UniProtKB/TrEMBL annotation:
Keyword Amino-acid biosynthesis carried by entry: yes
InterPro entries linked to this entry: Aminotrans_IV, Aminotrans_IV_CS, Aminotransferase-like, B_amino_transII, BCAT-like_C, BCAT-like_N, BCAT_family
Enzyme Commission code: 2.6.1.42
Pathway note: Amino-acid biosynthesis; L-leucine biosynthesis; L-leucine from 3-methyl-2-oxobutanoate: step 4/4; Amino-acid biosynthesis; L-valine biosynthesis; L-valine from pyruvate: step 4/4; Amino-acid biosynthesis; L-isoleucine biosynthesis; L-isoleucine from 2-oxobutanoate: step 4/4
Domain of life: Bacteria
Protein's organism: Amycolatopsis heterodermiae
Protein's name according to its UniProt entry: Branched-chain-amino-acid aminotransferase
Assigned protein family: Belongs to the class-IV pyridoxal-phosphate-dependent aminotransferase family.
SUPFAM superfamilies the record matches: D-aminoacid aminotransferase-like PLP-dependent enzymes
Ribonucleoprotein is among the record's keywords: no
Length: 366
């Protein structure tokens, strides 16, 4: 049961021809659909004022608490176009649950899961024409929440703003995805026990960019994060989880309390089980990773997350050594195909991961 009623205020949609032109090369993250969905929370009213409305700037006072104390959380999920004209959201209920968990950890109000899903659906209903029809492309949905109270006190805010925007996205991975290079930072850590590593709050990312810069300076694409205690065990990569193909097993670091429980990670674990691949959640030490690659035990490594689906890892660089971790192999490819086939409706959705959102009568004609 949803508690919020969404009102709709429509903008004149972008002319179809212009939209289709933009959709032919969407890139990632710089193109937005016509509308956004917003809702507000305060102690007196709870969640209220839920609307889909034209995408526009927010007007916020300089003393808005989110600017100063960083109470911001977000999610990222995708919608896919299907040949039958419907759009499919991938595991929105799981994203809703994680969003609520993130809010709880940041002392923010929880948006009921059904309202989160209804908000995402409301955006898809008004902007369904923005879901690219090319296989591989998708519509990236970004729900987020911020402390909207105007006050300089250092305490949880008493007013919040929730919003959902959408951005058409190019293929996450082509048929031959380019392997990425990873930098193991000797200095910086992403998350420690008891911290915020298990949730999607803005500060986790802002705090990681200095290491990301270091990675780029060393010719790498992303950082591979090590545990904060010993700098010994591998945790995750940038905004993705990590998998190793070791012998005939698929191994991923356990949810130790410092890494993000990726929904793609969970999907891969379940798909692998379905494909008859043995899976294990076990700590992986950086040294064992190197040894495993050198002695041929580890044959494939890949990163996974909503934005990129699956990206093979080709190389690891540390300050004093580096090693190749193999090209995209058959297991990586099989899992990527199995995931995409479900998302694009080409195999039955046996896990019940897809939520279909019908087309809107008022949608611009195709
Ligand atoms: C979002 C995210 C992931 C991947 O999660 P998905 O649910 O698969 O998109 C992994 N690690 C971090 C740090 C993230 O922010």
């Amino acid at each position: 049961m949803t508690t919020l009623e969404f009102t709709t205020d429509r903008v004149e949609p972008m002319p179809a021809e212009q939209r289709e032109e933009l959709l032919s090369m969407p890139g990632f993250g710089s193109l937005y659909s016509d509308h956004m969905v917003t809702a507000r929370w305060d102690a007196a009213h709870g969640w209220h004022d839920a609307r889909s409305r034209p995408l526009a700037e927010f007007s916020l006072h300089p003393a808005t608490m989110a600017f100063h104390y960083g109470q911001t959380v977000f999610e990222g999920l995708k919608a896919f176009w299907r040949p039958d004209g419907q759009r499919a959201l991938f595991r929105p209920e799981d994203h809703a649950r994680r969003f609520a968990r993130s809010a709880r950890r940041m002392a923010m109000p929880e948006l009921p899961e059904a309202d989160f899903v209804a908000a995402v659906e409301a955006l898809l209903r008004v902007d369904g024409a923005w879901v690219p029809r090319t296989r591989g492309h998708s519509f990236y949905v970004r729900p987020f929440m911020l402390a909207a109270e105007t006050h300089l006190s250092n305490r949880p805010a008493e007013e919040y703003l929730f919003a959902v925007i959408g951005s058409p996205a190019r293929p996450a991975a082509g048929a031959e995805p380019k392997p990425i290079r990873l930098w193991a930072s000797p200095e910086y850590v992403r998350a420690a026990d008891g911290g915020t590593g298990t949730i999607k709050c803005g500060g986790n990312y802002g705090g990681s960019y200095v290491a990301q810069r270091e990675a780029v300076a060393h010719g790498c694409d992303q950082v591979v994060w090590l545990d904060a205690r010993e700098r010994r065990y591998v945790e995750e990569v940038g905004g993705s989880n990590l998998f190793f193909v070791e012998g005939d097993r698929l191994v991923t670091p356990p949810l130790s309390g410092t890494l993000l429980a990726g929904i793609t990670r969970d999907s891969i674990l379940r798909l692998a089980g379905r494909l008859g691949i043995e899976v294990a959640e076990e700590p992986v030490a950086l040294d064992d990773w190197e040894r495993g690659c050198r002695d041929g035990r580890i044959t494939e490594v890949f990163a996974c997350g909503t934005a990129r689906a699956i990206a093979p890892v080709g190389h690891v660089v540390t300050p004093d050594r580096d090693w190749p971790t193999g090209p995209a192999g058959p297991v990586t490819r099989r899992l990527l195909k199995a995931l995409l086939d479900i998302q694009y409706g080409e195999t039955p959705d046996e896990f019940g991961w897809l939520r279909l959102v019908g087309t809107d009568a008022q949608e611009a004609p195709r």
